[in-house]
């Protein structure tokens, strides 16, 4: 019996080390003061902007991925972002059909996962229909000490991310380009869902244990005057 238990622990370590998230690991902290939006204001072009998410089973197997819709503004002064905020429509959570194989999921489809994510097991969208991100600071990316999966990252962005009733400050690298008429922001970072209390069932529930705590977020934001 003891041998079986040891083998089970060993197997779980191996699984946890395989695959998994591949974004920049976001630094997290307590809620911070929101930066004042100074200068010109640019609004999200919702037709081309996107927020992508990717979650994993333990060990990185059978990832689930999809999109979310959002709208918001970014402010710029002297060619640099001063602040910004955007609202995420949690009712818009959509799982890519190719992410769920009904033959492997007991007949469940991507649409079934969308419905489940909207329940009290996760986002509870009837009570919390939106999430929110508000920029608290934007600094220059220092290639001598900062690392990123984003090629040619230019900045480090910090902001308060509110999901349900929990606000956590997250910091991540990004590639920002600013012109007279458009701002583009690209980033790919990883958060821990438990920081926002997003758990499937009670603490220690086997259902929750089978899901990785890490979730990848990919931002491709275009904002225009």
Automatic annotation (TrEMBL):
The keyword Signal applies. Residues 41-224 form the Lipid/polyisoprenoid-binding YceI-like domain. Gene3D superfamilies: Lipid/polyisoprenoid-binding, YceI-like. It comes from the Bacteria. Keywords: Signal. Residues 1-26 form the signal peptide. InterPro entries: Lipid/polyisoprenoid-bd_YceI (IPR007372), TTHA0802/YceI-like_sf (IPR036761). This is YceI family protein. It comes from Sphingobacterium anhuiense. It holds the Pfam family YceI.
């Amino acid at each position: 019996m003891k041998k079986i238990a040891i083998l089970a622990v060993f197997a779980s370590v191996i699984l946890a080390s395989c695959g998994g998230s591949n974004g920049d690991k976001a630094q997290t902290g307590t809620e911070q003061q929101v930066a004042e939006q100074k200068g010109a204001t640019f609004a999200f072009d919702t037709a081309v902007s996107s927020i992508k998410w990717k979650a994993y089973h333990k060990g990185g197997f059978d990832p689930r991925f999809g999109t979310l819709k959002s709208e918001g503004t970014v402010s710029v002064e002297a060619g640099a972002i001063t602040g910004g905020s955007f609202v995420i429509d949690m009712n818009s959570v959509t799982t890519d059909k190719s992410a769920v194989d009904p033959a492997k999921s007991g007949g469940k489809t991507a649409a079934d996962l969308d419905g489940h994510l909207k329940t009290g097991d996760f986002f509870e969208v009837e009570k919390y229909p939106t999430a929110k991100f508000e920029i608290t600071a934007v600094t220059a990316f220092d290639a001598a000490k900062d690392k990123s999966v984003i090629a040619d990252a230019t900045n480090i962005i910090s902001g308060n991310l509110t999901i349900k009733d929990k606000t956590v400050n997250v910091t991540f690298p990004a590639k920002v380009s600013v012109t007279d008429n458009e701002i583009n922001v690209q980033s790919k970072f990883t958060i821990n869902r438990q920081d926002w209390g997003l758990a499937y069932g009670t603490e220690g529930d086997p259902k929750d244990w089978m899901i990785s705590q890490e979730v990848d977020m990919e931002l491709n934001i275009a904002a225009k005057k």
